[in-house]
TrEMBL record:
CDD domains: ABC_TM1139_LivF_branched (cd03224). The gene is livF. Signal peptide: none annotated. This is Leucine/isoleucine/valine transporter subunit ATP-binding component of ABC superfamily. InterPro entries: AAA+_ATPase, ABC_transporter-like_ATP-bd, ABC_transporter-like_CS, BCAA_Transport_ATP-bd_LivF, P-loop_NTPase. It comes from Methylocella tundrae.
Length: 244
C-alpha cells in the first residue's frame, strides 16, 4: 500500500454527521499523521464515538470529506475502509462472547489473511500474555480487563496502519487501565503504530498523546500538545477535578 507522501495518514475536512435531522458532528477538521498518538477527550455525548464511527462510514458523513492514506473514503463501505488498514476497538468492547479467545483473534485476522496468522498470534500473545493463558476460554467468561485486551488484540490481528480505540479504559480498575495505556504507548514507540484514542479518562489520554483535541457538542473546541492541554486550568477543571 502506498503511503500518503508527507500528508496526513487520515484527514477530515468540514465533516458533518446527522442522526435524522439532528446534527451530531458540526464541521470537524482533523489530521492524524503516521506514527502519532492522537486523543479526543470530551464529556459523554460530545460526539466522540460518532466521530470514530463516521470515519468508518457508519453513520456516513453527510457533508465534508475524509481521506485515508491519500484515498477518499467518505462514501466507502465499512468493510472496504477496513481493508485499507483501519482497525477499530469499539466502545463496550463487543467481542464475540460465545467464541473462544483464539476464535475471536481468528476473526480479527480475516483481513490480513492466513499467511501471517501464526506470527501475528504470537505477537499479540507477547503483548497480552493473559490472552495466551485464556486462548481456549470463551470471550464472555473473561474479566472486563481481559475482554478489553482481547478487543485490542483482535484489532491488531488485521495489521492496521491506524488503530482506533474507543473508551478503552471504560469500567476498568485503575491498575488494568494503566496496563492498557502502557501497551498502547509501547506499540507506538516500538512499532510506530498510529493510534487515534477516544477517551473520557483525560489524564491518561493526554499524558499518552502527542496531540489532543477537546470535543464539545459535536465540535472541536481546543487542540494542542497532550501535556500542554493537561496543564490548562480549564481542562483540569472540566475533566480532571475529582476525576482519575
Amino acid at each position: 500500500m502506498s503511503g500518503a507522501g508527507s500528508g496526513p495518514l487520515l484527514s477530515m475536512r468540514g465533516v458533518k454527521t446527522y442522526y435524522g435531522n439532528i446534527i451530531a458532528l458540526k464541521g470537524v477538521d482533523l489530521d492524524i499523521h503516521e506514527g502519532e498518538i492522537i486523543t479526543m477527550i470530551g464529556a459523554n455525548g460530545a460526539g466522540k464515538t460518532t466521530l470514530m464511527m463516521t470515519i468508518f462510514g457508519n453513520p456516513r458523513a453527510r457533508e465534508g470529506a475524509i481521506h485515508f492514506a491519500g484515498r477518499d473514503i467518505t462514501a466507502m463501505q465499512t468493510h472496504d475502509i477496513a481493508r485499507l488498514g483501519l482497525a477499530q476497538s469499539p466502545e463496550g468492547r463487543r467481542i464475540f462472547p460465545r467464541m473462544s479467545v483464539y476464535e475471536n483473534l481468528q476473526i480479527g485476522a480475516q483481513l490480513s489473511g492466513d499467511r501471517h496468522f501464526a506470527a501475528d498470534l504470537e505477537r499479540v500473545f507477547v503483548i497480552f500474555p493473559r490472552l495466551k493463558e485464556r486462548a481456549n476460554q470463551r470471550g464472555g467468561t473473561l474479566s472486563g480487563g481481559e475482554q478489553q485486551m482481547l478487543a485490542i488484540a483482535r484489532a491488531l490481528m488485521s495489521r492496521p496502519r491506524l488503530l482506533m480505540l474507543d473508551e478503552p479504559s471504560l469500567g476498568l480498575a485503575p491498575l488494568i487501565v494503566k496496563q492498557i495505556f502502557e501497551v498502547i504507548k509501547d506499540l507506538n514507540r516500538t512499532e510506530g503504530l498510529t493510534v487515534f484514542l477516544v477517551e473520557q479518562n483525560a489524564f491518561h489520554a493526554l499524558t499518552l498523546a502527542h496531540r489532543g483535541h477537546v470535543m464539545v457538542n459535536g465540535a472541536i473546541t481546543l487542540s494542542g500538545k497532550g501535556r500542554e492541554l493537561l496543564a490548562r486550568p480549564e481542562i483540569r477543571a472540566a475533566y480532571l477535578e475529582g476525576g482519575h
